[in-house]
Specification:
Oligomer: single chain
Helix content: 10-25%
Largest sheet: 7 strands, mixed
Radius of gyration: 18 Å
Shape: globular
Length: 301
């Protein structure tokens, strides 16, 4: 959940969220652990094969207040741990650095492949500048890391801010597995009453349309689940939590009471699918202000 260029307070908010936490040096030694799990979803069967898909905002960009959450090695270590210790065969990434993701890919082996789309800052003249992670870790972006070749990788056409940070989404197919769509949605406008300035509703609709049937889609949506007390509930198309179900969803048509995926206590990270859901876990990595979310569905790569 990075800052926009017009919101310099966001890095300070990230740093304040760390007050009272363990010393930053200890974060590098943490092995991801299960923080919250949903393992009994209705209508499931125990036979396989099963495929585990994860989404994780790595918080890898120095200029966005992420340095207290560990360096590039901590990000790569966590990606490897999500694969090797938690069984993720497909990882949806946000705020990931090219160098970190490539280091993890190489450590995981030749079967692993990476598709990463860089963020860009768009100015009033139309000039586009990639976002640099800092510390010689390359450009920052969103995308997919998977244990199979990626084919049919295409961007999702959706509105972006007229100026400022251009996030986005892409879809790809790893091996013989389901279509995977990874997204990082825009931050809401300062004035949420100005619906004309809201982009997440159109971005959510475009993401679902691009994914099609039988896909797994998700990422950092920069949005709370719909429900009482959320004045932005209107941004969610009706097909979400209905035609496709979320990783933690227990009741048809309702998001229920999902666990927080961000240090601010909110759920901002999602995995949706119309496939049967075998289990759902939230993993607190200690290397980001976002937890990783893992969903298991029928399939293999």
């Amino acid at each position: 959940m990075p800052p926009t260029s017009s919101d310099p307070s966001r890095p300070l908010l990230r740093r304040r969220a760390l007050l009272g936490a363990a010393a930053g040096a200890l974060l590098l030694a943490l092995v991801p652990g299960v923080r919250h799990g949903v393992t009994a979803l209705a209508g499931q069967q125990d036979d396989g094969p099963w495929l585990t898909v994860a989404t994780w905002n790595t918080c890898g960009i120095d200029a966005w207040g992420c340095t207290p959450f560990g360096d590039g090695k901590a990000k790569a270590d966590t990606l490897v741990a999500l694969a090797e210790q938690h069984g993720a065969r497909v990882l949806l990434l946000q705020e990931a650095c090219e160098g970190d993701a490539e280091a993890a890919r190489q450590r995981l082996g030749a079967d692993w492949h990476l598709a990463l789309q860089p963020y860009e800052q768009l100015d009033a003249t139309g000039a586009r500048t990639p976002v640099d992670c800092g510390a010689d870790r390359g450009r920052a972006g969103y995308g997919v890391l998977a244990a199979a070749p990626l084919t049919g990788t295409t961007p999702v056409a959706a509105p972006q801010p007229a100026t400022g940070l251009q996030r986005g989404a892409l879809c790809t197919t790893p091996g013989h597995g389901p279509r995977i769509c990874a997204a990082h949605l825009s931050l809401p406008p300062a004035d949420r009453s100005d619906r004309a300035a809201e982009l997440r509703d159109d971005q959510l609709a475009a993401l679902l349309a691009a994914a099609g049937d039988g896909a797994v889609l998700g990422g950092d949506f920069n949005a709370r689940p719909p429900g009482p007390g959320n004045r932005d509930s209107w941004i969610w198309p009706t097909a979400y939590y209905d035609r496709v179900q979320e990783c933690e969803q227990r009741t048809p048509g309702s998001p229920g009471r999902p666990g927080p995926t961000h240090d601010n206590g909110e759920k901002l990270d999602y995995l949706f699918t119309a496939l049967p859901r075998h289990g759902c876990r939230i993993v607190d990595t200690g290397a980001s202000d976002h937890r990783a979310l893992l969903l298991t569905v029928p399939g293999s790569l």
